[in-house]
Specification:
about 425 residues; alpha/beta; Aspartate Aminotransferase, domain 1; Aspartate Aminotransferase, domain 2; seven-stranded mixed β-sheet; about 40% helix
Length: about 425
Amino acid sequence: MSEVLNRETPLAAAEHAVPGANRDAAYDVARIRADFPILTREVYGKPLVYLDNGASAQKPVQVLDAMDEAYRRYYANVHRGIHRLSQEATDAFEAARDKVARFVGAPNHDEIVFTRGATEAINLVANSWGQRHIGEGDEIVLTVLEHHANIVPWQMLRERTGCVLKVVPLTPEGSPDLQVYESLLGPRTKLVAVAHISNVLGTVLPVRQMIDMAHAAGAKVLLDGCQAAPHMPIDMRALGCDFYVFSSHKLYGPTGIGVLWAPFETLNEMPPYQGGGEMIDRVTFEETTFKSPPHRFEAGTPAIVEAIGLGAAVDYVEGIGLDAIAAHEESLLRYATERLSAIDGLTLYGTAKEKAAILSFNLEGPHAHDVGTILDRSGVAVRCGHHCAQPLMDFLDVPATSRASFGLYNTHAEVDALAAAIEKVKDFF
């Protein structure tokens, strides 16, 4: 059983002693870390160094408390309830929708659809919009670096419709080859579906340019924003995409809920993805009519408390400031790149100029899984494997990588702990 540390962990204290670290004094990482109870624990007698934020981020007490209060004080099913608890739960649920709309710069809160996650959001688009608008011979353009959640739904649509998938390769730095991308766009291109940020390489895709090019060809654009939403300001008006998806659990919120954004006019012409309660207007055995968006796409009892938790997470990151978070993580990325690049036998993947705080690497000799196991014994949690991006692993010609992904609470001292733990791995091989 791991012991619980005091809130002021040795790593938090050491953060102020790291030589040469470029930090914004106004960004109080020690205070932020105090909001995350899990960061006070030990793993194998070592302070926890959590560098698996790209898979799922930890939760601040503000999120935990909001969800606990909902369950303890006003939990009830939402919408249509006459009694006080239902009204309070409905208000809190819809307030979360308002917060998410503000967070992404949506013109209308009815453009925010709550889903079980980003994966379901992409499947919703594929099964609703895609089924109606994409037919045999039509084309969908993806990139090599996509997460499986932004590949498999389109393959399934291809099996049903006979559409064609085209794939953009990468430059040596890990960015989409825009010359090839432009050549793949044509009169049969109906959709471009790409990541905003790569979950493996950290590449920030040139999405504004890619969107403009796609629209010039008459195609719609879906952005997978799972790695972008926690780390940088996003604004639907500025981006100009047609669909945007992201998940709560990477945004310091709970699991089991995600978001689809699309313009109301687009959502309003899309047929329902699932049928059941809440999404209906009138049901008879002869015919059913459906509600307007977003409720048309939210069949059944929704993730009520999870939505409230997501709203609290949005409040939390906005309270810190997405620009401040991005600057802090950029400092971590520079420092970590410098430290890991100095380790003999270590290869880093992805050197794009525009890059988020994600470092995928391999050591000469051990498999990535062995690296992760040994790092874990030093208290350092990283993700090892193909990261739900097997086509990218094939493109890189590696079976797997180890990935350190940083969040708003990570420190330069934790980068030092990662580097020291990697040096220990080398002692075994």
